[in-house]
Write a structure and sequence with these properties.
Three copies of one chain form a homotrimer. The first copy, chain A, folds into two domains: 350 residues, Alpha-Beta Barrel (TIM Barrel), CATH 3.20.20; 102 residues, Orthogonal Bundle (uronate isomerase, domain 2, chain A), CATH 1.10.2020. Chain A has a four-stranded parallel β-sheet with strand order 6-7-10-11, with helices on one face. By secondary structure, chain A is of the alpha/beta class. The N and C termini of chain A lie far apart (48 Å). In chain A, helix 16 links the parallel strand 10 and strand 11. In chain A, helix 17 packs across helix 18. Helices cover 47% and strands 8% of the residues of chain A.
Chain lengths: 473, 473, 473
């Protein structure tokens, strides 16, 4: 077994310059132990329903459900079957979690210098107390070590939630979701705060696979048939009201582009009816999504839900993988995005209304300084979300701070969210952000751009206050 | 009152590494006190006509006319009315300049880490001797302090011009402008050099609001009716000749895209006549602008005026604000730009002609390394202007140096211009550039990419010589 | 003569921070003297056929054939004729190589801070032992010095190849090339490894100037008339087989866009026949190239040749220069590129096939983090080439590491290639990469992102192993 001790430096991710590092360390110390505010993510609420729930095996926890992890092995020729990723047809995939773990460990060098590598290392060390750098030789011993802990009550989801010092965790839930898991958590005696987020993509994006089934589910949830555009609007309003009642603070919307544009009610209705007949065109879908985003902004003004818009992911780019394994398998690929023209109709109608908070996310970093920072630096309703997905990384954060902050201003951004379904990575992800933020502000301090009084406010804003304020938490 | 002393570090904006900082300091010292060359900006020449002119109140000087400042407060929910920004309908806005100043001071934290914050701090300290960090508590005392100075003869525009050590200040003037203010300055016994710049956008961009009135004004200026394309050309040539006579060195052109393309004279005439009848289409406007840019290049070759082209700003993106307050209210938003195809017709015809100097400005930083640096690194007629508008910031300058210089070469760039209507911010803006430039060159020195002999030449070029040479000043 | 001694610092290109610099130095030392692997370039193989070949005069070697060099002087008004660049019409250009050298030396300051400046300095010092910084005053003395060396047998191409420690040098060769120079090298007793690369652009891009002549040459090479699409496919397969026999490891393809898409055989044939009649449209050319890229991927899977695709250069942008001097004269200008949609057809068909290695190159750095890193981080067949052309520079490499590595992962990249026709610049170019790579990895080490064990592996991968593995060398 290799003798490489695995440790986490107290100075990790800080610039090496001693002056900047000292300031970064000082600033980071003021926010390192603050509670975690998680306003956007994909953790399954069911985990927290049962006091005694378990995360399963190390492979169940860290590999099989995490497309950040298995895409990297797949890109180097490891079949997803070998990693236990379930097939849509139920066909055979590796069932031996020790073998899956071994394959993962033998390819761990692929994560050198990547955010996944950083998160995994920090999780293994801090959450599970792993003391040696993972590799093929020690893979089984480390598997045993983690498995033993996952089997203990102290590693149940609720206990980890508490140990992680999570102040609030928002999930992402379909418009038709019964929110029974959220209800069960509220009904329990557990004090953890887990809130739903309203995500109606499956019904407002007409090109969603199995769209009709989602509309039917929505109808079932509201108790009336969603057979017209006006019924759809009524159903969405009803569901939003229910989500608000259940503690939701926000909605979430994904779209390939940021296109917005209002339809006349009869146009929207005609498109919706074509879709019900399975006859909607691609253009119908684009126009309908663009219209529904405007409707969502209107509803947000009325019911106070913060509106999140994630733009630019070409989903399921690799059709063979999608057909064999389904969505969210590491083959969503960004495309160039445009906001200046596309968002104008929505901003013209609602952008000056202080009751609206519209938080934008992009996968196209070129829009940071060109479009997003300038839009957010003007429209009262607009705020910018943190670096998203592939850009939720040290260099990604550096680019985000560099290209956005001078023009948008810190106070038109919304702090951090981890956006993850990988629950045990949450502390590591927030820690990367807090360190990156402290280091960025320290860079401003040592360049005499801000003083230490301002710097302390800024790191506190980045780490905690901006997210709470933006999401009304 | 808070006890935060406000100071400017002698090392501000330099990298913290001691080796790089020492070199940056040494290089900066060689250019820190050079006269300011201001080849492009928007200061009102009338300020310098009257020996005893005044800038008005602190709010008049620093807030009400400065869209860099009030857009940031607006983005956080402060109505423009509360900042005294005049309405187009003459409706009521805040008239109490002390209240405006108080609102500004209470939101001063919004400028943390922004270029506006840097300029404002440096102006307040260096121009007005403010010694405390501005905040709500000390707002009125600082107002009194500044107001008292603005009332004294030493703070008249001419005295500040002299104190700022401005060698030359170029303004921006409509094609129909009488240049009477420039004439009055020339006729006075004051030695300050204030030169006009010829900006014909209002007549060559057919989609300008009130285009017809601008054409009529042009006709009035030349003494013949501009009722045909050939009359327009004659009028523009006549006005350019007048501007040259009045000391102009350059023209300036704004366009949404860099599209260029020559029309046949009869095509240009047909479009122009349609426009006179109010019947020009959007496509007419695009083609006419593209054609007129080529005509402007031709005229520049003939009369020697340097041609500036600013591309990519979607003006008045927020229609509600435009209607209520007019243009230049912080709601011009950048769009993606394209130069390789769009400029080709112009470059094919004039790009190899050493008599032409065409200086490009972009709001799309993605074009820096992809298109602009490579075009400027080849075509003799092409030069690149400094980082423009939102990118006239420390990080913006770092990206500009990083992405342009290796490929374009320093000598295909044109130094700095402040592009500002905020007169007292001029020294601060040049200082940021000189420091950023010294720091960039110092980074090359400590990495052994250039030696100190070269470095000294380069900072002098950046701070002073490139602008003088490019603009023939 | 100036007394400026010219030296190369052992620490050049490393960050100035002492901690990072020390690590960079240590890492660099482990790879500094490794043999050079050159899997892609444009050196003329004929140079190595004759034991006694010579590079000619200093101007022949360093100026006249190097568009990186003369474009910079041209951009500042020096006519290409004055630099001895041959005209297509055979008209007069400067023949006095001493005068050409003098002009070059007098403009040497234009290369301050550019990669060309770095390469030239290092070549002059390390290859030719020049001890003084080149300038107008010492130009003739340095000319004499270099000319004397070029005349000696120790400076023949073969001796320089050996002294440079080149392990393998791949050339780029037309599909119809006889490879007689390669054969002559193999037949000689010289042990240098020079391998061909199959580049069929001239026959698969229908819009190539003189396309028909290239098709005829291809027919002559295979011994049958290429008069149909199926004949073209057979001819290409035959030539690829011959290249494989001659040691080729790769093909190379240039396209204005990354568009791929399969045609039905009868469609491809119809287009090909239209082209033979000189009647192909621009759309035909686009579709045919897009189809042939897919055919090339198929053939690569069959014959094992690595497939390289270079996208985004608008060739011969300056028509006047093209007509007067021909192609490759410094006027190829990048355009915005798109990969997510364009490559999807090819990736859908072949992207999951581990037998294919498709290496992508871009001139649009915006695609680094948005598209290329995410595609390469998923598809097993896809790898990313090093920063290309204008971006093969220190800042270009920094951006490449910064924007690609976190998402693609180091192991989906392919190390370095020099891509040069300027043979004596090869060691300098590899040295810049090795230093930049060591410095990047050192930056990860001092930020505690990777440990020294990983770091040593990473710099070895960057400098040597990735290129060998990707190109099967």
């Amino acid at each position: 077994m290799p003798d490489t001790k695995w440790t986490l430096s107290a100075d990790r991710f800080f610039d090496p310059d001693p002056a900047q590092r000292a300031v970064a360390r000082e600033l980071y110390a003021t926010v390192a132990d603050l509670p975690l505010v998680c306003p956007h993510g994909h953790v399954n609420p069911r985990l927290f329903v049962d006091e005694n729930a378990s995360f399963g095996s190390p492979a169940d926890l860290l590999i099989i459900p995490d497309h950040y992890v298995f895409r990297m092995l797949y890109s180097q020729g490891v079949p997803l079957e070998a990693l236990g990723v379930p097939r849509t047809d139920g066909g055979p995939v590796e069932q031996d979690h020790r073998k899956i773990w071994q394959t993962f460990a033998e390819h761990f060098h692929l994560f050198r210098g990547t955010p996944s590598g950083i998160w995994l290392q920090q999780e293994l060390i801090e959450v599970f107390g792993v003391e040696e750098k993972l590799c093929g030789e020690n893979a089984q011993a480390i598997y045993d070590h983690i498995a033993a802990q996952l089997a203990s009550p102290a590693f149940s989801p609720r206990r980890m939630f508490e140990r992680f010092n999570i102040e609030v965790l928002c999930t992402t839930d379909a418009a038709s979701d019964s929110l029974q898991d959220h209800q069960a958590i509220r009904d329990s005696d557990w004090s953890g705060v887990v809130l739903p987020t309203f995500r109606p993509d499956a019904v407002v994006n007409l090109d969603t696979p199995n769209w009709r089934a989602h509309v039917d589910a929505l109808g079932a949830a509201v108790g009336f048939e969603v057979d017209s555009y006006s019924a759809l609007i009524r159903a969405l309003e009803a569901r939003r009201a229910f989500f608000v009642e259940m503690g939701a603070r926000a909605t979430d919307h994904a779209a390939l582009t940021a296109y917005t544009g209002e339809l006349m009610p009869h146009e929207a209705d005609a498109i919706f009816r074509r879709a019900l007949k399975g006859a909607a065109t691609a253009e119908d879908a684009t126009r309908f999504t663009g219209h529904m985003l405007m409707e969502m902004a209107r509803m947000s003004i009325e019911d106070g839900l913060v509106m999140q818009l994630h733009v630019g992911s070409f989903r399921n780019h690799n059709r063979a993988i999608f057909e064999r394994f389904g969505p969210d398998k590491g083959c969503d690929i960004p495309t160039a995005s445009e906001f200046t023209h596309n968002l104008r109709p929505l901003l013209a109608k609602y952008g000056n209304d202080p009751r609206l908070t519209l938080i934008l996310f992009t996968l196209d970093e070129d829009t940071y300084s060109r479009e997003l920072a300038t839009l957010a630096g003007h429209y009262p309703a607009l705020k910018l979300g943190p670096p998203w997905w592939f850009h939720d990384s040290l260099a990604g954060m550096r680019r985000y701070f560099d290209r956005i902050m001078e023009t948008a201003g810190l106070y038109n951004t919304t702090g951090f969210n981890d956006d993850t379904r990988a629950f045990p990575s949450i502390p590591a992800r927030h820690d990367v952000w807090r360190r990156a933020g402290a280091n960025w502000v320290a860079g401003l301090v040592v360049r005499h751009i801000v003083d230490m009084d301002d710097a302390r406010e800024m790191v506190l804003d980045l780490a905690y206050r901006l997210a709470k304020r933006a999401y009304k938490l």
